[in-house]
Amino acid sequence: MKTETDAYFPSEIPEILFLKCIWRLQEYHSHQKTETILPKGTVEIIFNLSESIIYNNPAINLDTQLPPCFINGINFKPFHLKKMGQQYFLGIQLNTIGLKLLFDIPLSEFADNFLDASLICNHLDDLTHKLFSKTEFGDQVFIIRKWLYQQISTSKHQNETFQIHNLFYNQKQLATSVLDLSKCACISDRQLRRISSEWLGMNTEAFVSYNKYLHSLNLLHHSNKSLTQIGLEAGYYDQSHFIRNFKSYTGLTPKEYQALCTSVPGHIYK
User: Could you list the residue range(s) of the whole structural domain that residue 13 is in?
Assistant: First the structure.
């Protein structure tokens, strides 16, 4: 298997408020390979020029051929990709507020699912053709960034983005409860719940729980600490709480995940 990857990471406002990265993946599999992708707290617009790529949602045990361009929503459960032959992907990875900013669609409609992008935005068909007419990653990034700026310039939510980003993604310290989050944001629980549901596709309790899981996932990759220390640092009050919450998102205990994990957080290959 030969794999080539490229990535662009934003460094300036407004991109850093909603864009995590732009990435490209090219690889070849002579035999079918299954990639399990765990919840990562992101949403993605993905351009697909692969020979054979099947999306499997374990919740309904359904295999679906992926379209040339699709939007992968916020995930709370793992999903599988069955790959064979030449694989070619370009991806726009966003934080959870990115979809509402770009398309003004409730994030809950994208939960644990993917949607054909042509059903969401007609311009994405044209963008797909433009991107695959170029071979240099830098040219593709330029086209994507130009399109992103065009989208946000006409968004009715562009003036809210900075405030929403600061509410949920600019905390100096990880909020371990709704009360902590409300105090940091200096707004009422009720108001925060409304904003969270509207922009993140989950209530504030779910957001706090999800953030703990994501923090622990990151620590499992970038820390030499024990599982007990990782659980405490991620905001869990004991080891059983850590294991139970982590398994609710991944189907694995932290120890089982450590035995299977790769260099890319949240990705398991078989």
Answer: 3-153
